[in-house]
Amino acid sequence: MRMYDIITKKRNGEELTKEEIRFFVEGYTKGEIPDYQVSAFMMAIYFQKMNMTETSELTMAMVDSGETIDLSKIKGIKVDKHSTGGVGDTTTLIVGPMVAAAGVPVAKMSGRGLGHTGGTIDKLESFPGFSVEMSIEEFMANVNDKKIAIAGQTANLAPADKKLYALRDVTGTVDNMSLIAGSIMSKKIASGADAIVLDIKTGSGAFMKDEDSAFELADEMVKIGTHVGRNTIGVITDMDQPLGFAVGNALEVMEAIETLKGHGPEDLTELCLTLGAHMLVLGEKATDYESARETLKEVIKSGKALQKLKELVESQGGDARFVDNPELFETPSIIKPVFAKEEGYIKAIKADDIGIAALVLGAGRETKESILDLSVGIMLHKKIGDFVKKGEAIATIYANDEGKKLQSEEKIIKAYTIVSESIEKKKLIKGIVTKDGITKF
Ligand code: URA
Ligand code: CA
């Protein structure tokens, strides 16, 4: 088999065989096929596309390119949740404990933040002592014992994807549905989930800016999951503004604690109930979506979900006293409001720019080596549809450096669009994709 023939076959719009896809993935992972051939091949896929059979094969070949995690020692159906990335997205810290409290084992591999999006591990490290370093055996023992553990991605999962993603990133071939879907699903499948709930974001802060592409991506991922025997559901949600009010590590942890107590922001609470309810159904701890939501409201009301967060923090070496006493979290030296320069209704809040406004304060990473300041960030006071008077606070900045505060302030003001006519609130949950089809709300 020759890579040259595989490239020209796809260039001419033909369907590739299983053997050809495997040959490419294995050869590229081993370094036997050069980047220039793979660049041409990715461009051929970009223009000619791949069908479902090819996409599933590519996904599974990428899974098989490295280690896979065997979670079979964990009792019950392991349901993973994956978000395509947002700003102020604290859902894992809330959904994880909620779902675990309702009896579904949560074995979560999480990442650190990069660029304008935050990472769950960074947020959890706001609890002094909290660590994600553990062996796979400890990880599984924790899940069996506490129903929840959150680990860093240590294993060499889907190395073919890692290499391919880096190449796509510099060759203009990232935004192809099959390639994105295969990339995300290969990592989820390799990390051992039995079932997967995907939160596909759409809007200014998301990867998929328009709704139709988000539905298309969800459909592709659900089909891959179904094809390889993992029950998968995709929920399409709004990322046209940050989620909740807090953006920043310790601030988001405090927001998660409030939400687990039942006093969280409306949008964040609704998203957590929606994603969590689907997880309960897939994990067979509820027979239907509505009763799953009731169960989740109950674990919040009874305090069991909050208790689960404490157990998680404690079992991974963190100081769980912070959960009941959020005033223990370090507060930065500068806490200053940002005032509206005009009166009107909030039409838009560019989520990616708010993410960057938090990043410049030190809440996010510019490079993998950046050291974070977990105490800094932004609290938004106004969201889309709200009315603001001139001189009223739209946000509060938490900073440790006056210069950075000024930079951040400028970005926040620019991120907001204020207009004179009234604006309707955004719909948060835009639809759902299951193996049975697409439902738009
Ligand atoms: N995220 C991924 O992990 N892969 C892609 O291809 C795009 C986004
Ligand atoms: Ca938030």
TrEMBL record:
Its EC number is 2.4.2.2. The keyword Electron transport does not apply. GO terms for molecular function: 1,4-alpha-oligoglucan phosphorylase activity; deoxyuridine phosphorylase activity; metal ion binding; thymidine phosphorylase activity; uridine phosphorylase activity. Residues 345-419 form the Pyrimidine nucleoside phosphorylase C-terminal domain. GO terms for biological process: pyrimidine nucleobase metabolic process; pyrimidine nucleoside metabolic process. Its cofactor is K(+). This is Pyrimidine-nucleoside phosphorylase. It comes from Clostridium putrefaciens.
